[in-house]
Design goal:
By secondary structure, the protein is of the alpha/beta class. The chain has ten helices and 14 strands.
Length: 295
């Protein structure tokens, strides 16, 4: 193995809904980055490997899937193999992330950028590693906005982050004053990255409890919570509806995100039948998220 080289498999994406491609690639369990060429209306998704044979195998695995993906309006124009020097990696992907102002007081800052906060601003510093988690995605941004609003308006004391990824939601909740936070993700690498981000943000580890678990098997340490955020694919939300609803205190709030707009109504109705009332929704870039209250 050449420790100085990363081997890459790059997909040129001409789909209208390029976010859907990222969901398919995530399901295939690859480390990758994505960026949009807004001027030319296409995106590039680059998969990264330590071994050249793994990059070749990924290309061979994905190519037969492209016909099936077309049924979901995913249009991959080309797949290219190339290599880069490992020290060039940060310059390849970091330039596509930027400082994000969620609200007047909540700012998401990638760890490699400088920012001078205004008085009263809370800065969440994030290093997502080789995947997503800086708040750029529409569903993550909605979750952050709701956390900011609800913690301020309703004195949220307990928060559960279901599918925590980089830990961005939990860290934001802690920065905004929530003291009792639990988070879990099915991906052990995500939990490792979340732990590193908690340390970067100088949050006491005791304030955010992290677990590797899937939603079906997660045992909630605090049983129920004032606020739960479930930024998970819609079919997983529906399959685990009763478990997710059980995490929410009576009168508590649930944020559902990670849902394609075409799938949101079905998902919302599914949760309404379990005793939740939808009180807000937001759509951006083919994604819809919603806020629910437990009656």
């Amino acid at each position: 193995m050449d420790n100085d080289t990363l081997f890459c498999c790059k997909l040129k994406d001409e789909s209208v809904n390029q976010d859907l491609t990222t969901e398919f690639l995530t399901a295939l369990d690859y480390d990758f980055s994505s960026w949009e060429d807004l001027e030319n209306h296409h995106a590039f998704h680059t998969l990264y490997f330590a071994e050249e044979a793994d990059a070749v195998a990924a290309k061979a695995r994905i190519e037969p899937m492209l016909i099936e993906w077309k049924e979901f309006d995913i249009n991959i124009e080309s797949i290219e193999l190339f290599s880069i020097k490992r020290e060039d990696w940060s310059e390849v992907w970091k330039k596509y992330f930027h400082i994000l102002h969620i609200s007047d007081r909540l700012v998401i800052k990638p760890s490699w950028l400088e920012y001078n906060p205004k008085p009263g601003q809370k800065i969440v510093e994030i290093d997502p590693g080789m995947s997503f988690g800086t708040g750029q995605h529409a569903t993550t941004a909605y979750c952050l906005k709701m956390i900011d609003k609800l913690i301020d308006d309703e004195n949220i004391a307990t928060f559960l982050d279901a599918g925590c990824g980089s830990g961005i939601l939990s860290i934001a909740a802690a920065k905004l004053g929530c003291k009792e936070i639990d988070a879990f993700d099915i991906d052990s690498d995500s939990i490792m990255i979340a732990g590193e981000n908690i340390e970067i943000n100088k949050i006491e580890p005791k304030n955010i409890s992290l677990q590797v678990a899937d939603v079906a098997k997660f045992a909630a340490p605090r049983k129920t919570y004032d606020l739960v955020a479930a930024n998970i694919l819609a079919h997983i939300l529906r399959e685990n509806r009763d478990k997710i609803v059980s995490f929410v205190k009576p009168g508590g709030k649930l944020i559902l995100a990670g849902i394609l707009t075409s799938d949101f109504e079905n998902t919302a109705q599914h949760f309404s039948k379990a005793g939740l009332e939808q009180i807000d929704r937001f759509t951006e870039k083919e994604w819809t998220s919603g806020l629910f209250i437990k009656k």
